[in-house]
Every structure is written in C-alpha cells, then in structure tokens.
Amino acid sequence: MKKAVSFAMAVAMTASLTTVGAVPVLADDVSITIFNSKTEIQSQMEEKAAEYAEEKGIDVEVYYSNDTVAAHMATRYASEDPYTLSMVDAKDVYSLGKEHALDLSDQEWVNDTDYEISVDGTVYGFPVCVEARGLMYNADAIEAITGETFNPDDYKTLDAFKELIAKLIEGGMETPVGIMKEDWSLGAHFLSEVYEEQEDVEGFITSLHEGSADLINNEKFNSLMDTFDVLMENNYAKDSPIAAEREVSEQKLAEGEIAFMFGGNWDWSVINAYDYTENMGLMPVPQNTEDGTNEKLVGGGSKYFFIDNSDNTSEEQQQAAKDFLNWLVYDEAGQSFIATDCALVPAFSNNAIEVSDPLGKSVKKYADEGALIPNYDYAPDDHYSICGASFQKYLAGQIDRAGFATEIEDYWKATTPVEH
Amino acid sequence: MKRNTMSYKVKQFLMFAGPATVLFFAVVILPFVYGLYLTFTSWDGISKTKPFVGLANYLAAFKDAAYWQALGRTFIYSAIAVILVNVVAFLLAYLVTSGIKGQNFFRAGFFVPNLIGGIVLGYVWKFVFNRALVSVGQALSIGALSTSWLATTNGAMLCLIIVSVWQYAGYMMLIYVAGFMSVPKSLMEAAQIDGCTKSQATWNVTVPLMRASFVQCLFLTITRCFMVYDVNLSLTKGEPFNSSVMAAMHVYNQAFTYKNYGTGQAEALILFVVCAIVGVTQVYIGKKGEVEA
Amino acid sequence: MDANAQAAQKKKVSHAIMMIVLVAVFFLFIFPLILVIINVFKTKADITSNPLALIGAHGFTMENFPKAMEKMNFLVVFKNSLIVTVCATVLTLLVSSMAAFVIVRNNWKACNLLFSGMVASMVIPFQVLMIPLVSLYGGIFGVLNSRITLILMHVGFSASMATFMFHGAIRTNVPMELEEAAFIDGCTRWQTYWKIVFPLLKPTIATVAIIDAMAFWNDYLLPSLVLGRKELYTIPIATQVFYGTYSTDIGLVMAALLLAMLPILILYLFLQRYIVEGVTSGAVKG
Asked: A409, B227, C110, C180: which has the fewest C-beta neighbours closer than 10 Å?
C-alpha cells in the first residue's frame, strides 16, 4: 500500500515536471489581458472590461499587481507571459518601449493628444490620463474662517499666501497645512519642481550632473524652498513631521481641519473615502516670483498603455488591443469610462466630458489653458528615494537648506545621466 | 539484504531522499546557478540583451556605501532580535507547557501574530507607534513616548525589533513547545524524586535534551532576521531618511526599483554568503555539543 | 506553618505570578488582532479618525465582509488556496521526513552533501531566485500558470527547512534500539520507517505542518510569480486589489485577513493536540 502511494507520488511528480501545465487558451476566441497599475480604478476597469468583452465578442481580463510596476513587468517578461496591454509609468515606456512595445505611430489618436510618448520618433505609449501637482486646498474650510469667497488666483505670491495663513490662524485654525512625508511626494513631486520650473530644464540637469549647478544660490530652488518653509512652519504635525500618516492628513484636509496640502489630483482617490466638503481644488504652489510658474500646475500625461510586440502576443490580440485603445478615445462609452467612471482627466482633446472630481476639475482647467509645466520624466530611478530621504531630513530639521542643497548636488554628481 | 553495497545505498537514498532531492535541485539549485550567472551581466531586469560584464557588479556592490550601511544595520538588528525572540519564545514555551490552566488558549493567542502579516501588520503597528503610544506619552507627559519612535533613526530600529519579537516569538515558541514535549516526562519525574526543584529539573534535564530545538530556533531566527523584508516594508519602508533600510530591502530596491538587476543580484549573493557563514557556524557549534540520543 | 504548607503556599504564589505574566503577554500579543476585529466593522473614515473607537461615527457596518468576498471572488480563491496548501503540506511532510531519516541514519557522502546544501539554501534571499525561477520555468519549460507547478515549487522551497527540523527530531527523539529491534524482526528499512519512525515524529510533524501550511497559505510572492491567471489566484494574490500606492482600502484588507486566517487558526487548534499527544508516544525512550 505504502509502496503504491509512493510510486503514485513519484509518477505524479515526474509527470507534472515534464508536462506543460499552462492553462489552455481557447483557440478561436481572441482573448487579451490588460495590466492595470492604477489601483483606484481596478474595479471600474473590471466592470467595463466585462461589458466591453460581451459587446465585442472577445475575452478581456484585467490584472493588477501590488509590486512596483518595473518589478512586475520584469517577472512577466522573464516568464515570457506578458500582458497584451500594459499600463505603466512614463519612465517604463522609455526603458522598455523600444524592445517590447508595438509601434503605434500610425494610430489616429496620436493627433488628438499632446501627451503620447515616443522614443526616437516612434510612438509607443498611449496616455491614460492627465495628472498634475500643486497645492490642494479646501475652500470651504478657508471661507468658513475668512468669510470671503476663496479665489486661488489671489494667492499666487508667497506674501499673499502668508497673509492668508495668518488670517486662518487668527480665525482659529492653528495649523492650516499638512505635509506628506513620503519620499515620492517630497522627492519626486516637490523637489522635481525645482528642475521642472527652470528655464532650461535639460541644461540645468546637465549642470547638476557636471557639478556646476549652484543649488543653494539657484533662484528656483530658493523660491520653492521659501514656500516649503512656510508650509513646514504651519504643518499640523510640526513637532513630528515624519510621523504624520498620509491617510490622517488627507482626512484632515477632506474634512476641513486643515486647509492646504501639497499633492495632486490622484489624492482624490484617498480623499473621497472621507466626509469631504464640496469645494476643494488644486492651485499652483505660491511663490514670490515673476517667471509665471506660480500661475501653472506641474504635470502632464500619466500612466501609459503599451502593446506587447513579442511572439507571445498574436496579431489578432494586438489588433484587439489597438481597438480597445481607440474605443477609449473615440467611443462615447470609452470617453465616459475615463472621465466619469474613473474620474480621470482625459488626455485627449476630443473628450469633452466634464471631469467628476474637484481636483480633476482644477487640473482640466489648467490643462485647457495650457498652464501645465511638463513633467521631467528622465530622473534616475533612485532619485526619488535618495533625494526624498534628504528632503525628509530637511523636513525633520536635521539638516538646513545649505546641507540639503549639498546632498542633492552630491547625488546628481554621483549619478550617470539617463539616456534619452 | 546487504547494507553496504553501492546499489543498496543508491536504492535506499533514492527511495527516501529522491523526491526531496529532485525538487530541491529543480527549484533552488538550478535557479540559483542561473542567478549566479546573471551577476556577471549588466542586465536591467527586462531587456532582451544580457551583456556580460565580468566582475563589474561585484565592484559596484563593494562601492555601494548604502548597501554596506544596510548590512551593518542588519547585523545590529539581527543580534538584538535573535536574542530577544529566543528568550521570549523559550519562556513562553516553558510557561505554556507547565500545566497552567488554559494553556491551549494561551498557545493559540501567542500564535496569532504569525497570521497577521503585510499591510495589516504595518497599519496596526504604525497606529500603535505613531498615535496610540504618542497620546499615552503626551497624556502622562513621558518624554520618551511623546513623539513617535518611527520618526527617529534609533526609534525606527527599536520598532522593527519589537514587531519582529512579537511576530516570531510565537512561531519559535511552537518549536520549543515541541522540544519540551519530546522530552519524556519520566525523566523530569525521576529528577524531581531525586530532590531537584521543578526549575532545576527543567534547567538540568530538559534543556540539555532540547538542544536540537535550540539549534533549530537560533538558525531560523538568524536567517529570518538577516533576510528581514516584509516587516521592514510594511512598518517603515526604510524611513525615516532611508535609515531603516535593511539589506534585503536594499537589494530589492537596487534590482527592481533602481533597475540595476545585476548589482542587486550580486549584493544579494554577498548577503547570502554572510548569512550562510553565520547560520552554518551556529548549527555546527550547536551540533558538536549535542547530547547523543 | 509546616514546610509542606509553606511549599504549597510558595507554589500558589509562583503560579499566580506566572498566570499574571501570561495574561499580560497574551494581551500584548493579541492586541493587534483585537484592533483588527474592532475596525473591520467600521467604515474607512472611522478607521482613520479613531481606530480605537468600538463603533465609529458612521455606525456599525457589516459591509466589509461581503464586499471583500465579492471583490476577491472568495469561494474560488479559497478553493485554490486550500488545494495548494493541503497538497504542498502533505507532500512536504512526506518527502522531508523521509529524506531526513536517510540523512540521519547514514553517513554517506550524498546525504551530507544534500543536507549541507539544504541548510545553506535556507539563507538564500528569495529575491535572488525570483527572476531565474520564472525565466527557467516560464521562459524555457513553459510550466507556469499551473497549480501543480506551484505545489511542487512550494515543496522544493520548504523541503530544506522541514528536513532540517525532522533531522533534529530524528537525531534526538527516535531511539536506534527500536529500529534495530524492528530490523531483527525482519522489517525492511521502508517498513521500519513507516511503522516505527514516522509515528514517533508526531510532535514534529504537527509543528512542521502548521509552519508550512501557514507559510503556503499566506505566501504572496511565489504564487504571484507562478499563477498569472485569475482563475488560479490564491487568497493573498486576490487581496492585493485592495492595496495601492495612492489608496488602500484598509477595511476590506482587514475583512480579507480575518476570512483568510480562520482556516489556519482552526488547523492550529486541531494539530495542537498532536503536539501534546507526542509526550506519551515519545516516552518509549528511556
């Protein structure tokens, strides 16, 4: 008996080691897989995909992974099991587009967007939405104290902003600001504005690499840091800024306990879980500057679809994926899926549906006015982490502005430039 | 049946250890060898080309100051955590096998932390350190508690150690309990008849017979602590200022987030060697003095 | 007071102290679980604003459970987890205890080599093997997206530690005399193993079973690499739809956690008996 069991076991093992254990794919049906890297729209994606599949008679499965996008892509490509359509970040398109992505230059939608990604003249990335960074505000909370209608345009300069803060404090809101201590927020979002708002961005980055940039005497750096100092001074978690939890800060902003926080329209997915007040929005970071950057948000296309070009994806699948992208742009159902169901800001000019969330509305407004300073997508992969850590030290009061500037300069000097 | 012919040996070995050997080689050794090869390439993790670069990744690893800092940090963390985990686990095991009322209930309770992992662990403990302890500290005006430990360099390390003890103690307790249970009661009774007190009997009779359990627990805690990743990720994510990044997390970031796959892999191998030396030495020393049954 | 009464008194006091210590430590250990149980019946807003409140401002809600179950496709992923965990645990117990037996009882080169390889392999960080593993079994052999592959990989990865644990147990707790007696009675090695050795290993079997079952049940990384198809997802992979960089639905995560941990807790309570039972069977040695 025992022998029989062990024999069966051995057979089972060898058999399973040698046989192909892959799930068979129905041969005559086209089935595509979509990788979604935006958690907040996962359930909307799944629902829509089911509808879409039914309508078009193909099979669509939407996947999501909690790993970093690059790591997840790496494992899928290593196992030669890529998704038909993958949603990744801009920098991923630059790094893997040439090798793994299908040429989309001939697609009609290329003419209807300013945000597509091309590498060496070939379009690989389809922009999912527009996202931008700025100062989030809760107008209801501000108006409750000042008694006046809050118009963000009145607070372009730091001086005006400071006056407002003083008024809020006087009115009983002792600490009107929240600061996210996450390295991606500090490093990739706030610090990056220092680069992005330079007149000659590429030249500035080159000078950082070469070590010739003098950050501590740089106008943009100081102007933005001056504003950051004011935010820091009025941070509700001033005593222990590194312990501030993002969820808690967002809830305070949503419910009007604080009035300002640096962030972007993606924060809406957190805020909308709380009892938010109606009048919120996104405004440019106030600065005492004449260069116009205090009238613009920073941002652009965010999250890109690319179609796999390998032999693992058949031509039918590639065509089905292209059809899906076109559906997102040109079909009314696809347009409303992006703007209404997912509450994203469309990246295509032909999509006229009004955005449903307040932060998105602000972004749309600035985008339509052409008041978006473009993202700098070529920072090295470890930039947000290492420079974010330096920024955290500054936030915690462990280094001063000069020390912070030196650490940033040292980082850039030690890093090899990203080819692009 | 003759017991020393080659064919007998081979048959015996294959019969008992064959399946384990095959699977172990297929799943661990083979990928490991391939992984070793990848450390000699400058692969970025996703590209189709894997250019051979010789020892460049190892050179980069040696020059990576952040890695060595992380490794040093991991040493300190492991040394403290290993001792605390085992002391707590042993004491718990002793208490819950001493015939106390409701010991099954207690055992289940101490085991529970193992079942809470990942994001929930991070959420709960962040709440404890960032908010619960802080409000207690402020209410009672205890200076050390009035700001969050997670916000300071040493505090974050302390938090990591506390959570690790909480998580692993119940797990190691299991092994110690099995150890206690496999020491025959008759021996304990004999010792007590001979005039030993219960604690003396435990110390002089049971503990030496539990050597295997000690070796196992120490080895498991050492390796787990050296390779700590989950707790690190969910509790501190390396914050503040990347000062709580442990070796495994640095390796992961290097390979996948910073896209230096080869360097990350090389650094992981160095971690493996260090960890193997420490762990195997411990097992060797432990086995040498083992009481033969 | 005579000596006996004094001793009894002393025993009582020490017993009471032990009890107090145990209860205190017990609460420290299960405090996070209590927190989870309290918060799973609250809305996200209430969880963030005050995790300690028994009932949040938005009232008591059961919503998290059905919502989590629906989003995870609970019945399917539960079944998948169960199949993988049960098969992998049973196989691990069998192959590892057998391997440990032959390693302990024979001083052969192959045995020593295998054992040291296994011990050393326990310190390989999984990240090292991740990409090579999928390159080999996905890229070259094409056997990913299959439960059998996952089960065998689980066994391969956990065989080292299980063998290591059985190795210790056989060395110290299985007397050679019994085996020799069985041999004299005409038992083959194979029969001896199943009739004498295996039953004596009960406490360790129960321990390893719990440890491995728990590891398999909760493992995320390996299944997420091997099972790339929704219909094969296990519980930990399915719960990841609740996590994200920009938002995490903590109420759903907690509900999922509670749903997922029950089977392991039940298994633990069940197997615990065998750990205790082991005392009597282990007592043959003297």
From this structure: C180
